[in-house]
């Protein structure tokens, strides 16, 4: 059986129309397929490969760790150098209060942990999320995800979740003395690349402080310089009580975490002990990859690169069919007139060797999330090619 046949017959599918590229290898900003084609990865495996594919420092760190040890024990029992070293490096880049890291394997697991931590710390069970927010597909994360079409097939979910309008001051009183936590993306990703407005975010923070609710920032997509600062919250002057991370964190290896204060994390140790455990969270190879990734990110001006990507994209993408380019840094969305045009542009770009994608909650928004390492010339060429396709189909 060919790989293609096995994929379609034996790998569980999530839609009737997978992209279906058969991957041979990937390097830097490029993905190469078994039929010899080269594609520019303009979505970075969805905000994962910020350093491009197979960054040499990440590959080297993985190889080194593979030669030392793989899994040895469930998370939290043994002292493993890659975990400890990475937790120290990560927290050294964060405000003093975010001084502890719980390692997991994915974004949704990070949010599951964050929600449970907030519940246990506050002794409350109500959550507030936002319309069009996306936090993952396991039950807890889905419960606070603000799009009914994805929630409805799985009801009932967590019972006490209220959704508010993103960027609206109306309804903030819904966050009250029974609220364990408010969970949000500082810039909504799957909801259509919608940045929070600063005054509003600060008002949400104030309201949480007034009523003793925790504020969880899901920085799974926005983290690691995608939006120009190491974490998006640093661009807003608003600090979360808990932050969830994944995607670009592992430099291409599965890795996630939720970060909070030692005081808050204290509740995970007792009543009963071991009340939130994971077998593979903080896998040594993933931690070694994450350490190499963050070290590289801190060694150069990757924030500046993200900001430059935004400036160049806004200059190059001028076709009439584009109604808006929005987003921050290298987390951008190109809004087109309608679904038909969007589909044609994405397909035509794909044929020209450019991988673009939609966001989960929008039919008219093309996601642009190139790797931060992309050279200016390739960036401009790719953007011009996208612009030409929009012009071609919007006449
Ligand atoms: N939160 C956000 C903001 C995300 O963008 C995603 C993934 N698109 C997730 C959570 C879920 O992450 P994962 O797919 O690793 O579970």
Task: Summarize the model shown.
The chain is an alpha/beta fold and 395 residues long. The protein has helices at 3-10, 44-47, 56-66, 81-92, 107-122, 139-143, 148-151, 198-211, 262-265, 284-299, 302-316, 339-351, 376-393; strands at residues 23-27, 30-33, 38-41, 100-104, 126-130, 161-164, 179-184, 187-188, 194-195, 214-218, 242-245, 256-260, 322-328, 331-336, 354-355, 357-359, 362-368. Strand 16 (357-359) and strand 17 form a beta hairpin.
Task: Supply database-style keywords.
four-stranded mixed beta sheet, Aspartate Aminotransferase, domain 1, 395 residues, Aspartate Aminotransferase, domain 2, 13 helices, single chain, globular, alpha/beta, seven-stranded mixed beta sheet, binds 4'-deoxy-4'-aminopyridoxal-5'-phosphate
């Amino acid at each position: 059986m060919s790989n293609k046949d096995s994929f379609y017959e034996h790998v569980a599918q999530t839609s009737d129309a997978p992209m279906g590229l058969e991957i041979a290898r990937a390097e830097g900003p490029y993905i190469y397929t078994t039929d010899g084609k080269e594609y520019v990865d303009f979505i970075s495996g969805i905000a994962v490969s910020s350093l491009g594919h197979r960054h040499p420092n990440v590959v080297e760190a993985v190889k080194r760790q593979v030669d030392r040890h793989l899994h040895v024990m469930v998370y939290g029992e043994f002292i493993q150098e890659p975990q400890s070293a990475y937790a120290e490096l990560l927290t050294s880049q964060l405000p003093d209060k975010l001084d502890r890291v719980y390692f997991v394997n994915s974004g949704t697991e990070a949010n599951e942990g964050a929600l449970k931590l907030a519940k246990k710390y506050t002794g409350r069970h109500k959550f507030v999320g936002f319309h069009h927010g996306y936090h993952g597909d396991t039950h807890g994360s889905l419960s606070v995800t603000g799009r009914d079409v994805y929630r409805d097939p799985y009801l009932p979910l967590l019972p006490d979740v209220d959704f508010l309008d993103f960027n609206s001051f109306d309804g903030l009183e819904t966050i009250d003395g029974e609220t364990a936590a408010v969970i949000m993306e500082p810039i909504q990703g799957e909801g259509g690349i919608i940045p929070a407005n600063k005054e509003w975010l600060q008002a949400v923070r104030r309201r949480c402080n007034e009523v003793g609710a925790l504020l969880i920032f899901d920085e799974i997509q926005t983290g690691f310089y995608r939006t120009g600062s190491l974490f998006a919250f640093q661009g807003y002057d608003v600090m979360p009580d808990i932050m969830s991370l994944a995607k670009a964190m592992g430099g291409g290896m599965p890795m996630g975490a939720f970060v909070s204060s030692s005081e808050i994390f204290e509740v995970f140790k007792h009543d009963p002990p071991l009340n939130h455990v994971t077998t593979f969270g903080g896998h040594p190879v993933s931690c070694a990859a994450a350490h190499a990734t963050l070290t590289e990110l801190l060694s150069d001006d990757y924030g500046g690169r993200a900001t430059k990507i935004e400036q160049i994209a806004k200059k190059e993408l001028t076709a009439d069919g584009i109604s808006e380019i929005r987003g921050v840094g290298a987390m951008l969305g190109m809004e087109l007139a309608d679904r038909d045009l969007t589909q044609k542009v994405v397909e035509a770009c794909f044929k020209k060797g450019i991988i673009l994608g939609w966001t989960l909650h929008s039919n008219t928004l093309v996601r642009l999330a190139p790797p931060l390492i992309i050279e200016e010339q390739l960036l401009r060429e790719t953007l011009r090619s996208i612009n030409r396709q929009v012009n071609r189909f919007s006449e």
